[in-house]
Write a structure and sequence with these properties.
There is one protein chain. The protein is of the alpha+beta class. The chain has a single domain, classed as SH3 type barrels, CATH 2.30.30.90. Helices cover 24% and strands 41% of the residues. It is built from three helices and five strands; from the N terminus they run βαβββαβα. A five-stranded antiparallel sheet has the order 4-3-2-1-5. The longest helix is centred in the middle third of the chain and has 7 residues. The protein is globular. The mean pLDDT is 92.
Length: 80
C-alpha cells in the first residue's frame, strides 16, 4: 500500500519508492527512505503527513507520501 493510505501512529516498513517526478526518489533517499527502513505516520494535517524516519520527523506532501510503498510491521509481528 502507499504511505498516504496508512493510519497514524502505525509503524510501516518501506517496500519500495515509486516516484513519478524527476528528483523525487533522490530527495526521499536523502531523508532515509530506503527499502527495509521503518517509517511511522505521526499525524496527518490536510494533505501533509508528519512522519518519523530514523528518529527524525519530516513533513511530506501527498505526492511524496504516495510514492512510498509500505507494509504494516504490526501485522508482520502478529504472524511471527
Amino acid at each position: 500500500m502507499k504511505l498516504n493510505e496508512g493510519n497514524t501512529a502505525r509503524e510501516y516498513s518501506i517496500v519500495r519508492i515509486n516516484a513519478l517526478e524527476e528528483g523525487m526518489s533522490e530527495f526521499l533517499f536523502t531523508l532515509g527512505c530506503y527499502p527495509g527502513e521503518r517509517i511511522t505516520i505521526i499525524s496527518q494535517l490536510s494533505s501533509n503527513f508528519i512522519v518519523n524516519i530514523k528518529d527524525a520527523r519530516y513533513s511530506l506532501d501527498e505526492n511524496l507520501a504516495s510514492a512510498i510503498f509500505v507494509e504494516d510491521i504490526n501485522i508482520e509481528e502478529l504472524a511471527v
